[in-house]
Amino acid sequence: MKSINNTILLEDERVDGADKVNGKAKYTAEHSLPNMAYAVFVTSTIAKGSIKNLDTSKALTMPGVLDIIYYANCPAVPGYNPVAAERPKNVSEWRGYKVLYDNKVRFFGQPIALVLADSFENANAAVRFVKAEYEIEKFETNFDKARLDAANLKSPINYKRGVEKKYKELPNFVEAEYNIPIEVHNAMELFATIAYWEGDDKITLYDKTQGPKSTQSTVARTFGLADKNVRVIAENVGGGFGSGLRSWPHVAAACIAAKKINRPVKLVLTRPQMFTMVGYRPQSWQKVGIGADAAGNFIGISHEAISNTSKYEDFREGIVEASKFLYACENVDTKYSILPLDVSTPIWMRGPGEATGCFALESAIDELSYKLKMDPIQLRIKNFTAVNPENKLPFSDINIKDCYAYGMEKIGWKNRPTVPGSLKENGMLIGYGMSVGVFGAGKGAASVRIVLSNDGKLLLECAVSDMGPGTMTSMSIIASDAMQMPIQKIKFKLGDSDLPPGPSQGGSGTTSTVGSAVDLACKTLQQKLKEMAIQFAPAFAGSTADAMEVKNEMVISKSNANTKIDITALLKLANQEKIDLTIASNGKTAAQLKFTSNSFSSHYVKLAVNPTNGSIKILNVVTTGDAGKIISPKTARSQMIGGVVGGIGMALTEKVEFDHASGQITNASFGAYHVPLHSQIPPTDVWFVNKPDVNMNEIGAKGIGEIALIGFAAAVANAVYNATGKRVRDLPITPEKLGYKTTKA
Amino acid sequence: MKPCTSHDGRRGFLKKSASIAALYLTPSSLVKAFAVDSVIPTPIAKEKLAITINGKLMNLEIDARTTLLNLLREDLAYTGTKKGCEMGQCGACTIHINGKRTKSCIQLALNNQNNKITTIEGLSDGEKLHPMQAAFLKNDAFQCGYCTSGQIMSAVACVREGNAKNRKSIQTYMDTNICRCGAYQNIVDAIEEVAKTGVKI
Question: A95 and A74 in one domain?
């Protein structure tokens, strides 16, 4: 087991932190190019239909307006051609709706034209003079209504082991329905793309994306370009939470516009457009049945789910997955269908489907614990399994019971009333709740370039991005640890598709995937240094690599610490300016595939409910992570706290509201869609098991981005029940749902 | 009007768009801009603005519709001030106008005649971080960094206003600034730390 040498990590601040506090870090829209034009979308004011006529004549005469692109004048984009046989070999059809391509309207707020002008003010002013006449068609945006008709449901996927609906036969069972509304990522940075054609078949994009390589590939395949002729730069990403995991239509629009007017084009979405153009967590309905024997052993779990998608694209996620394997249970059946509506397409939002599913599962287990008169933590311990019951593989590591022990102690679980609604402090109803989260821990392929210069500086490069977790910092720590050299001498570069290929930042995979590649690159470099020492340093002549180690910026003999050479001296001796290697790291090895790997979390909430008005105040949170070795304790703690904040929003405040008569979202702003604020945030204690998962990957580290949020909303709902005796199964939990009337303005 | 249905592959896209592009290379000043329609406003004449930004007096000629935020970001390249909502709801664009914290996205630039503006770039003394910036860095009071400039400008004001008395007071007076990554706890830690030193900031 390796440990981070604290003497070389005196500064544990983010390596890219200084530029973020002094305003120097540049985000997508902050780049500027000569002769750049500004683009603003005109959006549809109906939910479904076609545009009979789009009048751009007035807008085109407005000052500074360069062009207005829409279906009647949109250049033919190779990837827009639906006929496969007519598309060139290197072109794939654009996924999703083809922006500016036809006169169809698929959802309220869909871009229908793009105004280009010489300034933002001129573009924005012209937008309101573009007039559309529509042929309106019948539409449906009401999930709650549409899901009741089975004919509307699509693509059910069923799973069964043992007996279906077994839970109903058991002496103790819970059967309940859970509803979660649409939630929107709402990263602080607005989505933006700056597109610049450097030639007929060469384009550079500054783009807000979680995957520079993925965007590069999408743009290349849409416009029929060689990958190497598409450069995507995303140096700093101002939050993503999943919304940047694909190239949305605005990216294509910026490319089309830049080509059509032959100028660089900057397109920045507005906050309301962030609600309709870059995905969201789909609305869901779930039904969970769970039954146990008298001793509390789970005997049957059934989990049904429906989540919405758009009419033009299917989207599904892992809503029912955790129910299949998180606890020991012989009889499990799941059923998951999607419900197409006349809305835009959803995408994974932090914790994705697992956060949705664990809200239901972890709430149901809490309900069952009251029926069984068992402590909910003891009930979970009772049903612990070290082997994944779905695929029968052992977990590479699971220490969730250590999390329970820490969380119980730290939140003061012993004070939890066994009778709901029976504890008061300072006139407030007090409740305690907990829950568990789980997410798959993967390891994919990535390449890393490693360059050691003869001034002793180490550069690592990978085309991954960083939307905030601190990737540069954790990768620098991994390199520092592997090389046993000061982090100050290491630079990790990311956010550019020209760098060696790396994954999109998502699914809690960056640390494992890119970290393993960084580790491998460092080890390869060390091997190279040893070989060079043998060849060029007389002291090592005839020695073998096994008898040597690289640390403290030296190659050293293991048997005699006095036999050593500085790596900078070695490079000079070998007459090399630098060692420059690009290393490819693969997915899991055969040995690693003998296990199944997950990160686990558990969350503990103490909250107060005001008995006179039902307002909920979270007083304390403890959150724990079982995710292998924690590479960067400081940023990892921040990430867990961030998950709690996101979870508080999911539990208490966040909900997209529709006017189903028009199909319009009515609260598309921070003023009306409520994300958590400073004063809603309780003191949060973060704890990690911090034990390397040696079966998972070489660095023993798993991701935490998702587990930080997964399950959290259930801990709140369980605590609300504990405080009030009222079980709320529909998020967000508001005073109305606790039976309190709110005054209407 | 016919929908665009022709597909002539990559070459077609590239060639056609290049020839169309030539039409639009006419300098914008030559484009006939004054339509007769009475609804359309006459082109906005450039207006004079004298404004001091981070201690530097600037005499500018600007579009009257320009917000202070867009003036800073688009015209003057002070990109440290962030655009998060353009509705005065998120606080990412917070700057100081004559020492008072203000959301620059809902301020017309022209309303700031002779005003003194401080942005995040003007907070630090050269390369040395301002104590609040240093405290944010030390306490890891951000993740993605996008709301950070606004949080720091609000935080400095919060301390100067005397509203950083305790955690609750800090939270209340920082509710002006949204952080979607959820760094709130560390932000309050940073502000509390600076406030406790009693150093004039």
Answer: yes
